[in-house]
Amino acid sequence: MKNKNLNNINTTGFNIPKDYFETFENQLLKKINAEETVLNVKSTGFETPKDYFNSIEDGVFEKLSEEKNTKVISLFNKKTIVYITGIAAAIVLCFNLSMFDSTIAFEDLEAATVESYILEDDINSYEIAALLTEEELNESIIITHDFQDETIEEYLLNNADIEALIVE
Hints:
Blueprint: H1 20-39, H2 52-65, H3 78-96, H4 111-120, H5 125-131, H6 139-142, H7 149-159, H8 162-167
């Protein structure tokens, strides 16, 4: 919102008292003289009793040594103990339920997961063979696919490095 009268303002809006600059020096000197009279005052108007600082320590210790009967409220009453044991029992019960039992069967694993585990952890064929029994290592169980020569040639051409095979 634009005010059209902003360009036509002739006064600043600030006012000073009448004869301010003419009387300023006199007012300043009055204040300085008043401060000098305050500095010349010898007493503050406050007095301490005789031997106050010598006897204050004894008075404080006397007040501290007085026994007061105060009401003591125990933090562990029957009600809070019952609440705490109930909560602890509920937590133990939740952890012992079978819904948190997350055993994974071998059938649940995907082939890609097992393959990536074997490749990432650098498991060699000797380590895999150490986990298997002799019956599981039987050739008739392991070799169940009958590959054709054309399929093997196509796989070697697409996936194998011929120079590495020649060196081997």
